[in-house]
Design brief:
Layout: H1 4-8, H2 17-29, H3 39-54, H4 56-78, H5 92-95, E1 101-103, E2 109-111, H6 114-121
Antiparallel strand pairs: 1-2
Length: 124
C-alpha cells in the first residue's frame, strides 16, 4: 500500500498543506515541463495521492486502512509457524488400529483380519 503522505512530502497531520504541496509537485513533474523518464509516473502518483487526501471522507478511510495495513505488516513479521511434525515411520498396519470390515454373504459385517492384525502388532 502506498504512503500518500510521503508521496506529497507531508506529515500525517497536514491539512491545508495538501493542496499547496500538490500544486508545487504537479508543476515540477508535469510531463509537459519535465522530460525525465520517470516524471510521468511520478506525476500520476502525485495525482493519485491528491485525489485520496483532498476529500475528508476518503482521507479518513485511507488513514484507517493504512493504519490496519501497517499493523498487519508488523504482526506478520513477528509470527512464526509451528514446527512441522516428523514423517511417519513404520508401516500402515501399525498406524491404523481400526479393523477392516467387509460384507459376507448376507450375514452382516465381519472383521476379516482383526485377530491376525492384532497378533502382528502385539508381537505374537
Amino acid at each position: 500500500m502506498k504512503d500518500y503522505y510521503t508521496i506529497l512530502g507531508l506529515s500525517k497531520s497536514a491539512t491545508g498543506d495538501i493542496k499547496k504541496s500538490f500544486r508545487s509537485l504537479a508543476l515540477k513533474f508535469h510531463p509537459d515541463k519535465n522530460k525525465n523518464p520517470g516524471a510521468e509516473n511520478r506525476f500520476k502518483e502525485i495525482n493519485e495521492a491528491h485525489e485520496i487526501l483532498r476529500g475528508e471522507n476518503s482521507r479518513k478511510t485511507y488513514d484507517y486502512d493504512y493504519r490496519n495495513y501497517k499493523n498487519n505488516q508488523q504482526n506478520s513479521q513477528t509470527y512464526s509457524a509451528p514446527p512441522k511434525a516428523p514423517p511417519h515411520q513404520g508401516n500402515d498396519q501399525q498406524r491404523h488400529s481400526t479393523p477392516t470390515w467387509t460384507e459376507t454373504e448376507g450375514r452382516g459385517p465381519k472383521s476379516t483380519n482383526y485377530r491376525q492384525r492384532n497378533a502382528e502388532t502385539n508381537g505374537q
